[in-house]
Amino acid sequence: MLILTCPNCGIAADETDLAPGGEAHITRHGPEASDDEFEGYLFHKRNPKGVHFERWRHAFGCGKWFHAARDTATLEVFGTYPAQTLEPPKALQALIRKKRPDWEGFQK
Amino acid sequence: MRRYSAFAIAREAARFHTGWERAWRSPMPKKAYDVIIIGAGGHGLATAYYLGKNHGIRNVAVIEKGWLGGGNTGRNTTIIRSNYLQDESAAIYEKARSLYETLSQELNYNVMFSPRGVMMLAQTEHEIRGYKRTEHANRLQGIETRFISPAEVKKLVPIIELAGPRYPVLGALWQPRGGTGRHDAVAWGYARACSDMGMDIIQQCEVTGIDQKDGKVTGVRTTKGDIACKKLGIVVAGNSGVLADMAGFRLPIESVALQALVSEPIKPCIDVVVMANTVHGYMSQSDKGEMVIGGGADGFNNYTQRGSFHHVEETVRALIETFPIISRLKMLRQWGGIVDMTGDRSPIIGKTPLGNTFINCGWGTGGFKSIPGSGWAMAATMASGQPDALAAGFGLDRFREGRFIDESVAAGVAH
């Protein structure tokens, strides 16, 4: 079972306590956005086979949103971090780079 | 190709089975082909087959990183039905279902199509309304479905518990000509027919790169060398995003794990397919006697071909309420496949941003039933370069234009 530690309340939560919320760090463009940008925001998720940053909600716990970094090919969890950020913490990125040397790095 | 027949069995019995041929050749790739199909699952092989049969294009290679039919083709619950709500979906799934009717004869390979009937239980008032709507839509689409009463449900499925307690059976949408097929045989039958037409099916050959020039694909790089092509078809289900990444475009697809399981084999007790979409479970009995059970997909991105245990638990928990008889059965095997989910739960068939490259993906949880229709439409699209009538609504551009074929609401979750 997938276990993620909620950075808001500190509890190591089972998958059954969590609600997946899809890819993290996607940009919602403003009213002047082009069709391309809006299509990208709505539909073009990264869907990588490998390192993936995603949103989760501690639904049957504290109820708050957070982010997790996970490998979709191995189910390894690299870490979790608060949702109030525009990119993954530098330390987490360094950890992932160490574990996955050919990772192309965080891309928006 | 030596045909299979009752006579052939008698002949081989008389000579100790020494005369059976390999069903398909295993060649090394040539330098170039007119068409390369990436992915030798059901959809890829069906595409190649109809390219040859309907359009006379036979200089074709189907390349596969694993083994033939080893992805979702060999990992589904073999259900075949076409009781969809939207016209576009109904048309292509019914095309597929109708091709399944005669596929064994056409391929000279027994795909064991068993039109035993598919029943979708209505267990809430909303489902009754939804399925009655589907029944009316299906009548207009020329698809035979009927909304049946609980008494008729009980007559067709004596082992069912109608009274609930939590979700009583209030009726069902019944498609008498739906059913099941032998999933591996579909891939094997198409492969044999493709090989017989002179096509090359190349297994253990992973695509590592896609060569392009002036906005067109010129060939693919593989673990068995570079192969040039005039047209490229990408038919790789859960790995579509990986291939699109190589080709340099993005797809509106997310890959998640969908699981199934079988029980230990028991004597025949249910001869239809029952789907219970409110509680996320569906079940049929295989010819070997195993209960074949499927449930909901995981909610997060995953490429591991195994799913979360709690989904198995949820599915089984729900099904034993409806079928108390199975409560003491042991689970024999469980497995997962990576399904490619689109936003509207409908597939993508058609052109890509690269001129001579076509894609067929996004079948999500409903791939097996659609194999012949999907191959038919994809082949026509690749042969002419323009979307076939069956495929027209399923283009990649529909997301940008907001022209969804919304089956996520229409079909519930279990496809």
Count of domains of chain B: 2
Distance between the termini of chain A: 29 Å
CATH-level-4 superfamily name of chain A? Folate-binding superfamily
Name given to the CATH homologous superfamily of the largest domain in chain B: FAD/NAD(P)-binding domain
Instruction: Provide the gyration radius of chain A in Å.
Output: 14 Å
Largest sheet of chain B: 8 strands, mixed
Could you walk me through the main structural features you see in this protein, from its secondary elements to its overall organization?
The complex is a heterodimer of chains A (108) and B (415). Chain A is of the alpha+beta class and 108 residues long. Helix content of chain A is 18%, strand content 29%. Chain A contains 2 helices and 6 strands. Chain A has helices at residues 35-43, 90-99, and strands at residues 3-5, 12-14, 19-23, 51-57, 65-71, 77-82. In chain A, the strands form 2 sheets. Chain A has a 4-stranded antiparallel beta sheet with strand order 3-4-5-6, with helices on one face. A two-stranded antiparallel sheet of chain A has the order 1-2. In chain A, a hairpin with a 6-residue loop joins strand 1 and strand 2 (12-14). Chain A starts with a strand and ends in a 9-residue tail after the last helix. The model of chain A has no long low-confidence stretch (mean pLDDT 95). With 415 residues, chain B is of the alpha/beta class. Chain B has 12 helices and 18 strands. In chain B, the strands form 3 sheets. In chain B, strands 1, 2, 8, 9, 10, 11, 17 and 18 form an 8-stranded mixed beta sheet that branches. In chain B, strands 5-6-4-13-14-15-12-16 form an 8-stranded mixed beta sheet. A two-stranded antiparallel sheet of chain B has the order 3-7. Chain B is globular. Residues 411-415 of chain B have low confidence and may be disordered. Classes of the chains: A alpha+beta (108), B alpha/beta (415). The interface between A and B is medium-sized, with 26 and 22 residues.
